[in-house]
Amino acid sequence: MLTLYNTLTRKKESFAPLHPPLVGLYLCGPTVYNDAHLGNARGPIVFDVLTRYLRYRGFQVRYVRNITDVGHLVGDGDEGEDKLARAARAQKLEPMQVAQHYTVRYRQAMAALGCLPPDIEPQASGHITEQIALIEEIIQRGLAYEVNGSVYFDVPKYNAEGGEYGRLSGRVVEELLANTRAELAGQAEKRAPTDFALWKSAAPEHLMRWPSPWGEGFPGWHLECSAMSRKYLGAEFDIHGGGLDLMFPHHECEIAQNEASATPGTGARFWLHNNMLTVNGQKMSKSLGNFITLNEFFQGSSDALSQAYSPMTLRFFFLQAQYRSPIDLSDDALQAARKGYRKLMNGLRLLDSEKLKVKSEEAEIDEQKLVANSQQLNALAAKPFEFLDDDLNTPRALAALFDLLKRFNTLAATPAALAEVSPEAVAAAAATYRTVVVDILGLRDEPRASAEELLTLALGFYQEAKLEKAYDKVDQIRSALKTQGIVIKDTKTGVEWAYSEE
Ligand code: ZN
Questions:
Q1: How many angstroms does the Cα of residue 154 sit away from the middle of ligand 1?
Q2: What does the alpha-carbon distance between residue 480 and residue 436 come to, in Å, rounded to a whole number?
Q3: What is the pTM of this model?
Q4: If you measure from the C-alpha of residue 223 to the centroid of ligand 1, how many angstroms do you get, rounded to a whole number?
Q5: What spacing in Å lies between the alpha carbon of 27 and ligand 1's midpoint?
Q6: Which of 93, 384, 417, 494 makes an SS bond possible with 97, Cβ 3.0 to 4.6 Å?
Q7: What CATH code is assigned to 282-440?
C-alpha cells in the first residue's frame, strides 16, 4: 500500500484515489522567462517517479503540469513588473516569443532528465476565461473585492467565515497581519496586507493584458493553478505537488481560492512538497555565483563545479535523497552519484548477458535449498517496492537494488550457487530489477563512449596490424568496421576512414 506524506494533514496517509483507477496529479510548472536551474529539476523528477510508480501500480494517471507565462511578478508578490514582460522588454521580443523559447528549452531539459512529458501542459495565458470565471465565483461568495480595476481576495473575511488560510503552511493570519508593514508600496489598494491579487488592472502600455469585467488587466499568479487544475482534474482531485518554496503563499492561496469558489474544497486531497537543493552547503543564488542552469550543468560551464555531469547522473543524485529532505550538490556528491548510476547500469548489462542463465542441469540439487534460496531472492527483489510504498523512499529503494545486484553478481560468478536457485526466481528478480531501474526510477543507459574516439582506437590497431604484416587481423578489422558502415582508406600519408557509400 502506497503511503504519502500529506502536508495538509502533516502525516503519512495511505493513498487511494477518489475515482480508481484514475489518478489526477497537478504539478506547478515553470515560469518561462529564463532557463531552469538545477533546483527546478528536483520537483519534476520526484513527481515523474511518482507518476511512473502509480502507473506501474495500475493506476491511470492524468498528469497536468502548467506553464506560467503571465501573472508571475518580479518579487513573487502582487507588485512589480511581470517576469515575462520584463524579459521581453529587455530583449525587445514579444512576451509569447520569450515564453515559447524557454518552454522549448525546458521541455528539452526535462526529456534529457528522463521526465515523461505531462499529459496536459496548460498555459496560463490560454486560460484567461476560466480565471475570470473563477474570480466571479469568489466575488459572488463575497470573498473578493474590486478596487480601481484590480480584484483582491479578502483573507480576513474568508477566515471569519470559517476559512482556514494558513492551514497548509501553518501560518497564523493574525501574525501575518502584525508582521506585514501596511505602508509597503502598492499595498494601499488592499483592505488587509494578507489579501492577494486575483486580477491586476494594467495600463495601456502593459505588454500582456486582457479585457475583463473590471477593465483591462491580467490574472494574479496564484489563480491559474486553481483554474487549470479545476478544469482538467475537477474541483476535487488526488495529488497536488510542488516545491517547498511554493507552499506559502502560492499553494496557500490556491487552496483559499478553491474553497472560496462555487465548488468549495481544498482542490487536491494530498498536497506533496519536495524539499530544496543547496550547492556546496549554500542556497543557490546569482549573487553567490553558485547559480547553475541545467544547460550550464550539462555543458560543464559553471564555475561552481569542476566538470560536466550527465543528465542521468543528476537524476540519480536527486533520487539518492528522500524527496522531503534537503539535498546538497557538490562535485563529491555528483561523482558518487555517477559511480552509483554506472553500477546500476552495469547491473542491466549483467542481466543482458548469459551469465545468469543456468547452463547445465546439476546432477544433485538439494530441493530444500533450492526453495529456500529462491525465496530469499524473491524477498530481496520485493524490497524496492516496500521502500517506494513508504512515501517514495528512493534512497532506500536504491540501496535495496544494490543488495539485489550484489546477489546477482555472486550468482553470476559462482555457477554452483546459481544452480541452487530456481531459474524462474532468477528471471523474476531480474525482471524486477529492470522494471524498478528503468520504468519506475526512469534511469536509462546513456551512451558514454564517443564513437569518434572508438574509431580512432580501431584505426590505431589497424595500422599496428599492418606494420606487423598480420594480414588476418587487418582483414578482420576492415570487415568489422564495414559492418558498421565505415570503410578504411590507405593513403600515402596514413589511414583515413569514410562512410561506406554502398
Ligand atoms: Zn502553481
A1: 20
A2: 36
A3: 0.92
A4: 8
A5: 7
A6: 93
A7: 1.10.730
